[in-house]
Structure formats: C-alpha cells, structure tokens
Amino acid sequence: MATATKANPKKTAASKTRTPRSTTKTTAAKTAAPRAAKAAAVVQTGGSNAALLKRREAAVARGVASAAPVFAARAENSELWDVEGNRYIDFAGGIAVLNTGHRHPKVIAAAKAQEDLYTHTSFQVVQYEPYVALAEKLNALAPGDFAKKSLLVTTGAEAVENAVKIARAATGRPGVIAFSGGYHGRTNLTLGMTGKVNPYKKDFGPFPTDIFRAPFPDARNGVTVDDALKALQTLFLTDADPSRVAAIILEPVLGEGGYHPVPAEMWQALRAICDRHGILLIADEIQSGFGRTGKWFAIEHSGVAPDLITVAKSMAGGYPIAGVVGRADVMDAAAPGGLGGTYGGNPVACAAALAAIEAIEAEGLLARSIALGETFRARFADIGARTAPYRMWDIRGLGGMLAVEFVTDFETAAPDAALTKSVIAHALKRGLILLACGMHGNALRIMVPLTASDAIIEEGLAIFEAALADAIAA
Ligand SMILES: Cc1ncc(COP(=O)(O)O)c(C=O)c1O
After folding, report:
1. Ligand 1 test: best mutation among 161, 183, 310, most atoms within 8 Å of CB?
2. According to the model, what pLDDT value does residue 43 have?
3. How far is the CA of 419 from the centre of ligand 1 (A)?
4. pTM of the entire structure?
5. Three-state SS annotation for the chain
6. Span 112-362: which CATH code?
C-alpha cells in the first residue's frame, strides 16, 4: 500500500472512523449525492462513437489529433471497451503510460486512499509525505553511485523544461544539444529541442535560441556512432562552443522518433565528452522508463549514469505526474522558489506512483518486459515472413519497448506509411489498438501493459496478423 495511507496514522484512523460523505444522512450529504450523480451523467451520456465524434469536432481544437475514432467507456489491465460496448486489446497503453495496465488494483487503491485524506495543498504551501516518499524512491532507483535529489512536476515536457533550467543554473551556461529524431515535448522550449518537424513543430516557430542539434546514431540510415560523434565534434567547432553548453539530452530509446535504441558506446562516449567539457548529461526516460525496457531506466543497459533523468508516463500507472532525478549538487543549483508549480507532485498522483513502482517490483515486471520483447520479436519475424514477405523490416528495440517498420520492399526499404496506417485501421476494426511512430510514420510500436496475460498477447498478435493480411489485400 502506498505511503500516503501510512503517512499520518492519526489522520488515517480519524478518517476511517468518519462516515464516508456520500452515505452520511445529513442535509448537506443529501444535496451532494444528486449533484455527483448528475455530474456523472453529463460526462458519460452513452452516446455512440459517431455522435461523440461529431460533438468532439465541434468542440475540440483540431490540433489535438486522436489515433482511434472511438470513445472509451471503461478499461481494465490491457483491455478497453468503447461507448458502444466494443472490446479492444490495448497495445498502445495510452502512449507508454500503462506499464502496470489500466486501473492496476494497487494504483487505484492507493489513489482512492489518498483522495480520502486530501487531494491538493500545493507542495509549495503545505508539504506532504507522499511527495517526499516518491522523491526518496526515485533517488534510490536512479542509476549512479552518488547522492541524488528529485523534483516533481506534472507533465513530461515540464520535466524536460526543468531539467534544462537546472542544468543552466548548475553550469551558468545557456547551450543545449539535442538529437535529430528526438522528442522532448510540445512546449516552446521542448519543441525547440524536439527533432521532428511534422506534426509537432509545423507552424509553431520561432523556437528558443541556444538549442543545437546533432545527428542521432542510426547505422541503418547511414549514421554510425563514429559518424554521430564526429558530427558532434564539428558542431562544437561550428556553432556550439562546448564551454557554453550546459547539457546534452538524449532519449535512451528514441520514442516518437521510431524506437531506435542508443548504442551503449554512444552513451559511453557522450559521458566522456560531457566530463571533458563540464557538460551535464541528461537522459530523457519519459517513454523508456519504469520497466518498459526490462530495467527501471533504459540507460542502465549501457552502464552509464547520467547527471539528470527526466521521468513521467508509466511512473504512476495512469496519473499525471513527472519529475527530474539527478545529482544532488546539480539539483540544488536552482535557488529556493526557482522550481515548482501549483500542481507539481500532486499527492494523489504521488500515491499512485508509489503503488505503481511497488507493483513493478512485486510482480517482476522488469523480467516480464524482457520476456515480452522476446515473444514479440519472434512472432513479428514469423508473421512478417508468412503474411507480408519483404514488408516488415527491422524489428528493433530494448526489452518490451519494441517496434517494427513497414517498407515497400527489402531492396529499397522505402518507408510505407500508408501500409502502416492501414494495418492500424484494420487492427482497430478487429479489436486491437496500435500506434505508429518514426520519422516517416511507418513504424509500429509496442507499449502493451507488462501486466497483460500471455493469452491476451497471443490474441492481440493474432488480430495483428489478420489486420496485416487485410491491409496487404486492400
Ligand atoms: C521522451 C519523451 N520526452 C518528453 C515527452 C513529453 O511528455 P508529455 O507529453 O507528458 O509532455 C514525451 C511524450 O511522449 C516523450 O516520449
């Protein structure tokens, strides 16, 4: 159970003896109950997908795109049902947020217990133990044999923004080096760091200065680690004076950029370069963290300890919380009041995160990720050979963070975004939620809950195979 419920035994006991508000027979409670019922009716009217789509198109800005034209009614572990009662297997996990599945019982219990105590005080006004407990946990989990401290915020982009702020405060330097294909968020600074124009950066400039881009080492696309390191040295000569660079930031496995793992020797070389020039190394683990690759943090596969790590997504099993973990001296560079935000480290989300982390530990989800990765690799190779010869290419990733590309043929390996889109659409019709990624939108990424049963994985793979056959035939 989360620390939240243990935080203050006196208060927990008091709240237990108090009759829950909704069942108290007072006038206030009587008026509260119908209000709650009415609110529930307003958000879940039971409309069809088509009717809700129409309302959505009229009410929601078109810049917010949705992959599936259906509306959720409920979800459990790796399954989801839409408002028309259709069932789906979820291989997308709400964009890598659900390593512990939808509504993990421990996560839900911890969040509910916390809601019975308090839901918001703002840590900057009145502090609470779940924030401290989560920071302690993150400090203990993050790689590196040095003292660590943490900051909690709400979204991944906010975590990246704060990592840059902290790095700038710690070094007194402005520069940040990011990589082609990297994704760091949708705020102005993080968009400047994101290395993919469409759809993220289109129409949104100008972006902040002092952001530099180096090529990502992707040997298959002709950029070896050697090439990438030479380009970085050239960047130091042409644009980014290393003595003015605060940080180098990189995702251990490119997320939106196509699930390309960073070779270990790249991390090792970056560590040496950073140490030589007094630059801080930041691993953006927002998508690759919390068991997705078979380790708590994907950078652990390389043996390198970064100075700062950004975290979010699967940390809290579906609740919005993010953070920065890193060297205590670096984290303490920002002056009191320089970091934070009204909602940062919300107590319900902290309780959920502590429970999700406990579930990953108790249920052996790191090992499960490795096993799932092996299953998907083998099954994709087999399905590709049988169903779509020479169209499924480069099955890649780390552990259960895995993607496969669709190409027009093996000779040219030209990206086939249309086929990828078609497979996703056919899969949805058959009851499987899939999501693409990659610079050309032709990679399918697997973010299935690590808690999914073998039977569900097999059912999902069978749907995938049928959808692929549909798409090839179409
Ligand atoms: C590696 C990485 N960094 C940053 C972000 C931004 O996180 P958020 O969408 O919570 O702002 C994401 C989101 O997908 C991500 O994958």
Report:
1. 183
2. 62
3. 26
4. 0.91
5. CCHHHHCCHHHHHHHHHCCCHHHCCCHHHHHHHHHHHHHHHHHCCCCCHHHHHHHHHHHCCCCCCCCCCCCEEEEEECEEEECCCCEEEECCHHHHCCCCCECCHHHHHHHHHHHCCCCCCCCCCCCCHHHHHHHHHHHHHCCCCCCEEEEEECCHHHHHHHHHHHHHHHHCCCEEEEECCCCCCCCHHHHHHCCCHHHHHCCCCCCCCCEEEECCCCHHHCCCHHHHHHHHHHHHHHCCCHHHEEEEEECCECCCCCCCECCHHHHHHHHHHHHHHCCEEEEECCCCCCCCCCCCCHHHHHCCCCCEEEECHHHHCCCCCEEEEEEHHHHCCCCCCCCCCCCCCCHHHHHHHHHHHHHHHHCCHHHHHHHHHHHHHHHHHHHHHHHCCCCEEEEEEECCEEEEEEECCCCCCCECHHHHHHHHHHHHHHCEECEEECCCCCEEEECCCCCCCHHHHHHHHHHHHHHHHHHHHC
6. 3.40.640.10
Which is the closest atom of ligand 1 to the Cα of 158?
11
Positions of CATH 3.90.1150.10 in the chain: 365-473
Name the stretches of the chain with pLDDT < 70: 1-43
Q: What is the pLDDT of residue 22?
A: 36
Q: What pLDDT is attached to residue 221?
A: 83
- Domain(s) labelled CATH 3.40.640.10 in the chain stretch across 112-362
- Cα(157) to ligand 1 centroid in Å equals 6
For ligand 1, residues with CB inside 6 Å are 95, 155-157, 160, 183-185, 251, 255-256, 284, 286-287, 312
383-400 pLDDT per residue, tens: 999 999 999 989 999 999
CATH of domain 365-473: 3.90.1150.10
Q: What is the CA(284)–ligand 1 centre distance, in A?
A: 9
Atom 7 in ligand 1: residue holding the nearest Cα: 156
Ligand 1 atom closest to the Cα of residue 185 is 6
